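From the thread on structure requests for the teaching lab: each student submitted one protein with a one-line request. Submission from student K.M.:

"Model Leucoanthocyanidin dioxygenase-like from Sesamum indicum, tokens only."
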Amino acid sequence: MVSPMAPSPRVEILARSGINTIPKEYVRPEEELKSIGDIFAEEKSMDGPQVPTIDLEAINSDDEEMRKKCHEELKQAAMEWGVMHLINHGIPKELVNRVKVAGREFFELPVEEKEKYANDQEAGNVQGYGSKLANNASGQLEWEDYFFHCVFPEEKRDLSIWPKNPADYIPATSEYAKQIRALATKVLSVLSLGLGLEHDRLEKEIGGMEDLTLQMKINYYPKCPQPELALGVEAHTDVSALTFILHNMVPGLQLFYKGNWVTAKCVPNSIIMHVGDTVEILSNGRYKSILHRGLVNKEKVRVSWAVFCEPPKEKIILRPLPETVSEAEPPCFPPRTFAQHIKHKLFKKSGDEDSLDGKKSSH
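Reply posted by the TA:
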């Protein structure tokens, strides 16, 4: 039994209303329901493949052997999985904690307070507080509210839409964005070297310091009375170059690996990193942009903080780099601007959910 749909309210309001059944717009198609299980049981299971954990302590080490080992492990994880837990990433625990506290405190404000920051998706303004609008024929919705905004470079930010409450939101998030930007440079350098390129090549190709933009999306997944029927975020790949994710240690992330959904463990003091479509395209598919989704549960609110590192929308043509193309390995992707790539993904109807062309955008 599924309740009829009222006009799409915030999911938080819906979750708190005491409903026992979720509106039909949140129920996934029959085919998809078969693969949605109990996220807590799946997170505890040690069966099957596990998302790799990469220790970055030696990423810039003077000890050549240790540095090479770290680089090789990162490269292999990017080629095989396209997602990994990063530990010893160099971002102070105290700063990470401040970011989490500030984001959590914002979402704990009354809904009417958060609505002051509401975005206007229909007018094309996605920055601010929002919930997914049904943008497909089935009218399918996701069990989450979010806050989305540009966090770097500083001159591209619109601080007028950043939360003023809690007071530490702007300082903590600004500092975290700077540190993630520096981490992105380190990772891109290793991935460039892994393709046999100059260490700064990938970063230059996606806009460099000037034009690579960092967008933060705080995902807030309320408790769901029927988690076996819903998804917090439907299956998609990230359009970004790289995505860095913090979470509140409540499981939910699943990766589509070798034909099965694999649940990511909650690794303390780690940052999850995804390779996005942009790097997959530039590397001609050597690095993978993996299909992933978010499950929800009855018992605990889940919150995640995703930072998407994105190239400029029109300035750069994304295509496999010449060094990654040969007669044996022709280009797997046609040349497109970042904007064209996003549009192509949004409107592409695909029967093959594991090919890049059919995969959906992250935001």
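TA comment: The CA atoms of residues 322 and 335 lie 12 Å apart. The radius of gyration is 20 Å.
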